[in-house]
Design a protein that fits this description.
Blueprint lengths: L10 E12 L18 H5 L3 E4 L2 E11 L3 E2 L5 E9 L2 E3 L5 E3 L3 E4 L2 H11 L3 E3 L1 E6 L5 E6 L8 E7 L8 E4 L9 E3 L16 E4 L2 E13 L19 E12 L3 E3 L3
Length: 255
């Protein structure tokens, strides 16, 4: 037993994020090394048919969350690093993204994210620092590790980054839907197992602007073990402020 307090769906979160697109993986290609935790790789690659398409990396820094580090009496924060290799198609014709690798900064987020939506969260140490000139450095490392498995620098684009536009992903309909397979338990108490598939279409809205990313590990963002050794498209989107809704999931015995 972890002793962690349950935080059932729905969740309302606030913060900022950065989203970077990845070149598509062929549906017949192998997933990159580090695409999932070794204990979960088989489950996260199975079920449905991988159809590829563009993947994504997302970095999120929450200022308000139902779980995470307590900032004040009732406000908590949390950080996330997310990898989505592409989309899967299922027997009923639906197509959805799948998160296969995700790190968060708290045990509370780990257990509740797994239990609520089958999101395969694991705890990591985050260092997200934004300098006065707007440059943001991001490093993520395993607890007690001496070097990061993820490193990147995010910068504003002269003139272009001054322009921000309101964005609501609801306009994309079901394109942003997630379908997550059931999880096995991990080595730590908060890495709980689940039994059913979970489907969800998160709500996301905020003020978006263009930014650039520079990988920090030999031209890649990851080390190929804790996170894929990949290089996203150089231009991405930053959303600040960000409002995110994680609704109650739809549960399925099989997909």
């Amino acid at each position: 037993m972890s002793g962690i307090q349950a935080a059932p769906a729905p969740w309302k979160l606030k913060g900022r994020n950065w989203i970077f697109v990845l070149s598509g993986i062929s549906k017949n290609a192998s997933f990159p090394a580090g695409f999932a935790d070794p204990n979960e790789a088989e489950a996260l690659a199975s079920g449905g048919e991988f159809v590829g398409g563009q993947g994504m990396i997302q970095i999120v820094s929450y200022t308000e969350s139902p779980v995470g580090t307590l900032l004040t009496f009732d406000i908590k924060s949390d950080d996330e690093l997310i990898y989505l290799p592409g989309r899967w198609k299922y027997a009923d014709g639906t197509v959805a993204f799948r998160i296969t690798r995700i790190y968060v900064s708290s045990k509370e987020s780990t257990e509740n994210g797994r239990r609520n939506w089958n999101i395969p969260k694991h705890v990591a140490n985050f260092n997200i620092h934004t300098a006065e000139n707007g440059t943001t450095s991001v490093t993520v490392s395993h607890p007690n590790a001496s070097s990061p498995f993820f490193e990147a620098t995010i910068k504003a684009i002269p003139i272009l980054s001054r322009i921000s536009v309101p964005v609501n992903l609801r306009i994309l309909g079901e394109y942003t839907a997630l379908m997550q397979p059931p999880l096995q338990s991990g080595e730590l108490p908060e890495e709980v197992a689940t039994k059913q598939w979970a489907g969800l279409n998160p709500g996301m809205k905020g003020s978006a602007r263009l930014v650039t990313i520079t990988p920090g590990l030999n031209g890649k963002v990851g080390d190929g073990v804790g996170f894929p050794a990949i290089a996203p498209w150089s231009i991405g989107v930053a959303m600040d402020p960000l409002d995110l809704d994680f609704y109650e999931p739809s549960l399925y015995d099989s997909r």
